[in-house]
Every structure is written in C-alpha cells, then in structure tokens.
Automatic annotation (TrEMBL):
The ABC-type glycine betaine transport system substrate-binding domain, residue ranges: 43-312
Name under which the protein is recorded: ABC transporter substrate-binding protein
Organism: Solicola gregarius
PROSITE patterns associated with the record: PROKAR_LIPOPROTEIN
InterPro entries linked: ABC_Gly_betaine_transp_sub-bd
Alphabetically ordered keywords of this record: Signal
Keyword Cell division: no
UniProt KW Signal keyword: yes
Low complexity bias (residue ranges): 36-46
Length: 317
C-alpha cells in the first residue's frame, strides 16, 4: 500500500538570482553553479530509542542525511519521553519512531491518561488523526514506511499445524484455554490479553509476565508451557525458534509503521530533509528490517556496516 505524505513541507520564498545573459568567465556565480547537493548543509541531531532496531533506524537516517550534506550526530536514549521533549524544543532535529506510539504519546500528553485511542490499524487514518497533535507540539510527521513493528502473537509450528491455525480468529474458534507469555502489563491492554479476549474471543486462562519477546517468552512457547507468545513482528528469533505468527486478521494492532518525526522549525529551514527521508521510507519493508535485526543480533554484523550495505544495495548511497 502506498502511503501518502502526511504533512506538506513547503519551502519558503525562493531567492531568485538573476544572472545577466552576457555574463562571462568573470561571473562570480559561475564557478559554484549546480553542485549544491555536495555542500555542507550544517549540523543535525538524530535521536531515538537505544535498542537494536532503534540503532538501525537512527543509523539509516544518519547515513542518508550525511550523504546529502549534513553533519549528523546521534543521541540515542532510553525512552520516548526524553527524545520527544528534546525534539519539541529543538535540541533534537529528527527521530525515527513508530506511528501509533507517537499518537499514543501525544494523545495522552494532550488529553490525559484516559484519553480514547486515536489510532487504528490503518496507517493513513492514524496519520490523519495524529497530525493535528503533532502540529501543536511543533513536530512534523513525514512519510511512514511500509516497515512496521507491531505486537505479534506466535505459536509453535506443531501447535499451528495440529490445529490448522493461521489467524488469531482460528485460535479463538479453537475454544481451548490458552496460556499467554507476554509483557507484564499485558493483562489489561486492549492490544494484548484484553483485546485478544474481546475481539478474538480467545480464552486467555493465564498470562505469564515473561516479557515482550526475548528468550523467556520464546522458550515458554517452545516448551509448551505457553501456547501463545507476544513478540515484535520484526523479531527474527521467532522463525528461528520454530514459531509462527498468527495473522491479526481483524486489525487489533494499531499501525506501528516507522515514521520520521522532525522538528517543524528545523524542517522549514531544511525542507530537503523531507525528500531524503521520504525516499528512504518509500522502500523500507518489514522483511528488510527483520533481516537487518537478524544481521546485527544473530550474525553480529556492526550496525553501521549492515546499514551501509542495505542502503548501497537499495541505491540510496
């Protein structure tokens, strides 16, 4: 699905330099004409969350923006609260983030912890709903990538095969009591146990708070202690462990497409940043992001090397 650009980025009034038609070799503008793409465009700070996928996305932004002429510095932190505060005040210029995550953060900040969710499974609808809140915060959202890292729910290949399971609806129709290995806050979340019960009618008998993905949750499903486990959809260890994701066929999970968030004032002064990052987003898929995660976590490829190879293969460097 092609995602349209959310917020138009307009360039301020262009300064038109008129050069006399008869200008000769002594024209002071002649030497510098036509190669502005390689010039130094100034400094730029990229932030985001400091985990494998966050490091990969920040490095992607770093490399494509560096190639376009910016002096880029990365400042990765632990939580969204930190980098969004910095993005808002302009000490950070660009952040790669997840679409519904942005929406939830801004919605709760503006309307309180009990605010009704404004995002859905549709990236375009979510973007439309989030954009006014982002604008009020001084943040511009660019083109979301196809790549998304949503909550995913996986079962063992044997359990799926024995019960002919392909979707979460199939699991609900099975009618068996299910133990779910998941994040500690899963029980009351509409995108976790609560939603699985209400939307898919899955009989969640017990939630084991073993974590969002990771070895304990993975091992619990592998060993049969749990029938269902919660993972990120770009987690390469799921398939490696012989587990399979069940399709979220009713769209329970909100759209978590990777989306560039840019300080609006910075973007007004540097509109070319939108073109560079939108070009990157246009080609990035979930499978590619999963492969990059696998290279870094399992094959121990350095983040800059994995990213550089990907960008080179995609013609972005």
């Amino acid at each position: 699905m092609k995602l349209r650009r959310a917020l138009a980025t307009s360039v301020g009034a262009a300064v038109l330099l008129s050069v006399a038609a008869c200008g000769g070799d002594d024209d002071p503008l002649a030497e510098d004409d036509g190669d502005s793409g390689s010039s130094d465009k100034g400094s730029l700070v990229v932030s985001g969350q400091d985990f494998t996928e966050g490091q990969i996305m920040a490095e992607m932004y770093d490399q494509v923006l560096s190639a376009s002429g910016y002096d880029v510095e990365q400042k990765l932190v632990d939580t969204r609260d930190i980098y969004f505060a910095q993005l808002r005040k302009g000490s950070v210029d660009v952040v790669p983030d997840y679409l519904a995550g942005i929406g939830d953060y801004l919605n709760i900040e503006a309307n309180g912890p009990d605010a009704k969710a404004i995002t859905s499974n549709s990236p375009d609808e979510s973007l439309d709903a989030i954009s006014p809140l982002a604008e009020d915060a001084g943040i511009s959202l660019l083109e979301p990538a196809e790549a998304t890292n949503q909550n995913g729910y996986a079962v063992s290949e044997d359990f799926a095969s024995d019960n002919d399971l392909k979707t979460l609806s199939d699991l609900g129709k099975l009618g068996e009591s299910i133990t779910l290995a998941a994040a500690p806050d899963c029980e009351d979340r509409t995108d976790c146990a609560k939603g699985l019960k209400e939307v898919y009618k899955i009989d969640i008998e017990k939630v084991l708070p073993l974590g969002f993905g990771g070895a304990p949750t993975r091992n619990s499903v592998e060993d049969g202690e749990s029938q269902l486990g919660q993972f990120g959809t770009t987690d390469p260890t799921v398939e490696e462990a012989g587990l399979v994701f069940l399709e979220d066929d009713k769209g329970l999970q909100p759209a978590q497409n990777l989306t560039p968030a840019v300080n609006t004032d910075f973007l007004k002064d540097h509109p070319d940043v939108a073109d560079t990052l939108n070009e990157l987003s246009a080609g990035l898929t979930t499978d590619q992001l999963m492969d990059l995660n696998n290279q870094v976590d399992s094959e121990r490829v350095a983040v800059p090397d994995a990213v550089e190879q990907y960008l080179t293969d995609e013609g972005l460097l």
